[in-house]
Amino acid sequence: MKLVPVLNRVFRSFKINKPLLILLIGIDLIFISAHCLLLFGIIDYNLDFSIEKDFGYAEFYQYIKEFGIFLILIFLFYEKEQIIYLVWAMFFLYVLLDDSLSLHEVYGVYLADYFNFQPKFNLRAEDFGELLIFLSIGVLFFISIIFAFFKTDLMGRLVTRNLFILILILAFFAIFVDQLHIMVPSGKNKFAVLEDGGEMLIMSFIFIYALSLKHTIKSPITY
């Protein structure tokens, strides 16, 4: 299997889903705008419109996208019978569970207490616990992905490379901007919009990319 035909097929399939991508991004922007209007007191205060609220309207929308990505990757694993898709599916299942159940926050507090972390750099002790959770989970999945990477075909490697890039962008908002959100109290609201809004937008791109893979893999590649 040659690389160029694979790339062409992936991007061609992505274009097929362009209307859906526009729709998802549009919904993201509506939620982000509603959150901003909420902050400025332009609309009646209702936490369900906040993009920061767990199980709020925006968060629930995010859960749907994450669950959709998980299902698509499980389908790809079934179709291709390659472990790399299962590993990625488990990664997004973890993302869904972490988002909905606040796993890194709950266990971050536990680890902070266990290791007796101390506040530093305007970060709370539990923030260091959360970073340790992210690091541990990241290393676990990275090792799993590397192991599966060398056992998959060219398409699987291409998918992994592209998903890895998208995940790095997601991590920038979910981890780096999240810490700035805490370290710089004066910019709390701005960083909150950047963090959660950025996560929503990137997850929409990941969903569309995963959906495009379903079309790509089901359609034979021509040379």
Would you kindly provide a written description of the structure presented here, covering whatever features stand out?
Helix content is 79%, strand content 0%. The protein is built from 8 helices and no strands. With 223 residues, the chain is an all-alpha fold. Helix 4 runs antiparallel to helix 6. The protein has one domain. Keywords: Membrane, Transmembrane, Transmembrane helix.
Could you write a compact summary of the structure shown?
With 223 residues, this protein is mostly helical. It is built from eight helices and no strands.
- Helices, by number, come to 8
State the end-to-end distance: 9 Å
How are helices and strands ordered from N to C?
Answer: HHHHHHHH
Q: What would you report as the Rg, rounded to the nearest angstrom?
A: 19 Å
Shape: globular
Indicate the topology.
Blueprint: H1 3-16, H2 18-39, H3 57-80, H4 83-101, H5 103-114, H6 125-149, H7 154-183, H8 188-218
Helix pairs in contact: 1-8, 2-8, 3-4, 3-8, 4-6, 5-6, 6-7, 7-8
Keywords, separated by commas or semicolons:
79% helix; 223 residues; 8 helices; single chain
